[in-house]
């Protein structure tokens, strides 16, 4: 049986002690903070989609650093398969666009502690991204 979930990419960007988040304007997470991201377009890789969505929703230019894994969202129909990519966006300040109502650098501690209203697994992916940045590769 094939997976009927919608395939999407997330751009997880950490700069210093802050993480880039957007407040969603549309369902299923309207009003909640989450990572820039969206559906893959035909023929697009996850990395390409993450970078495109980062630019569309925040105006920032970035590069993919590593995969952070996959999150499955099954509490809505249809479900989503979200592939999270750790990205670098070293310059500029975010400006909300596309389906993002706001875009901002949020303190990592607030995100990991779930001190703001956010989508599922944002805290987990932020912690995973921080660990990936702090752990040197062999």
Quick recap:
The protein is of the alpha+beta class.
SSE series: EEEEHEEEHH
* CATH top level label: Alpha Beta
Q: Give the averaged pLDDT, no decimals.
A: 94
Structural class: alpha+beta
The backbone outline, from C-alpha atoms, is globular
Major β-sheet profile: 7 strands, mixed
Low-confidence stretches: none
Task: Count the domains.
Answer: 1
Strand content: 35-45%
Classify the oligomer. Answer: single chain
Count all strands and give the number: 7
Q: For the CA atoms, what is the radius of gyration?
A: 14 Å
Please give the share of residues in helix: 10-25%
CATH superfamily: Nucleoside Triphosphate Pyrophosphohydrolase
3D structure, described in words:
This is NUDIX hydrolase. One of its GO terms (molecular function) is hydrolase activity. Pfam families: NUDIX (PF00293). Its cofactor is Mg(2+). The chain is an alpha+beta fold and 138 residues long. It starts with 5 loop residues before the first strand and ends with a helix. The relative contact order is 0.27. The model has no long low-confidence stretch (mean pLDDT 94). Strands 1, 2, 3, 4, 5, 6 and 7 form a seven-stranded mixed sheet that branches. The protein contains three helices and seven strands; from the N terminus they run ββββαβββαα. The protein has one domain: Nucleoside Triphosphate Pyrophosphohydrolase (Alpha-Beta Complex). 22% of the residues lie in helices and 36% in strands.
């Amino acid at each position: 049986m094939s997976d009927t979930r919608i395939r999407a990419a997330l751009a997880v960007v950490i700069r210093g002690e802050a993480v880039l988040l957007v407040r969603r304007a549309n369902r299923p997470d309207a009003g909640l903070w989450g990572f820039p991201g969206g559906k893959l377009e035909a023929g697009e890789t996850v990395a390409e989609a993450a970078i495109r969505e980062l630019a569309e929703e925040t105006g920032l230019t970035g590069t993919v650093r590593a995969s952070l894994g996959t999150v499955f969202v099954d509490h809505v129909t249809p479900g989503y398969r979200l592939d999270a990519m750790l990205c670098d966006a070293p310059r500029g300040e975010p400006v909300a666009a596309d389906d993002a109502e706001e875009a901002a650098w949020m303190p990592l501690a607030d995100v990991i502690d779930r001190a703001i209203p956010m989508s599922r697994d944002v805290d987990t992916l932020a912690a995973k991204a921080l660990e990936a940045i702090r752990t040197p590769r062999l």
